[in-house]
Amino acid sequence: MGVYTFVCRNSGGEWTAKQHSGEIEASAATTYELQRQLVAAASAADSASGVQSSFAMVSPNSAVFQVVVGAVGGGAMMVSGGAAAGGGASSGGAAAEAPKEEKVEEKEESDDDMGFSLFD
């Protein structure tokens, strides 16, 4: 499992990102495009399947983006956070089946007689 943290800055309408402790860099016109490039670069650097990411604006012109490779079982990819949020896309590999939940009907409690009245 690899964790990649990037510092993102907007200057002149162009977003740039540099890895906090590493050599991965990227630039794009929008934060969404930047996130996609960084996820692709981090995935290429780490052979584990499954990617999870988080994007957080620190100020109008700076943000922090973190990619965790190998954190999600079954190869699911999720990009989330900030003003530009992506959806879940499936990468190669068989997805692990979620355990089936049994439906349990709950009895609704009657509010008719609680043993006291609010207006007494």
Concise synopsis of the structure shown:
By secondary structure, the protein is mostly beta strands.
Description:
- The chain is built from 1 helix and 7 strands.
- The chain is mainly beta.
- The protein has a domain of 68 residues.
- A 7-stranded mixed β-sheet has the order 3-2-1-5-4-6-7, covered by helices on one side.
- Strand 4 and strand 5 form a beta hairpin.
- The longest helix is centred in the first third of the chain and has 15 residues.
- One of its GO terms (molecular function) is structural constituent of ribosome.
- Belongs to the eukaryotic ribosomal protein P1/P2 family.
- Keywords: Ribonucleoprotein, Ribosomal protein.
- This is 60S acidic ribosomal protein P3.
Spell out the helices and strands N to C: EEEHEEEE
Shape: elongated
How many separate helices?
A: 1
Number of extended strands: 7
Strand content: 35-45%
Termini gap: 62 Å
Share of helix among residues? 10-25%
Low-pLDDT residue spans: 83-96
Strand order of the largest sheet: 3-2-1-5-4-6-7
Q: What does the average pLDDT come to?
A: 75
What structural class do you assign from the helix and strand content? mainly beta
Protein name: 60S acidic ribosomal protein P3
Family: Belongs to the eukaryotic ribosomal protein P1/P2 family.
Region (Disordered): 84-120
Pfam family, one: Ribosomal_60s
List the helices and strands and how they pair.
Layout: E1 2-11, E2 14-19, E3 25-28, H1 31-45, E4 51-59, E5 62-69, E6 76-78, E7 89-90
Parallel strand pairs: 4-6
Antiparallel strand pairs: 1-2, 1-5, 2-3, 4-5, 6-7
Family: Belongs to the eukaryotic ribosomal protein P1/P2 family.
Keywords: Ribonucleoprotein, Ribosomal protein
Pfam families: Ribosomal_60s (PF00428)
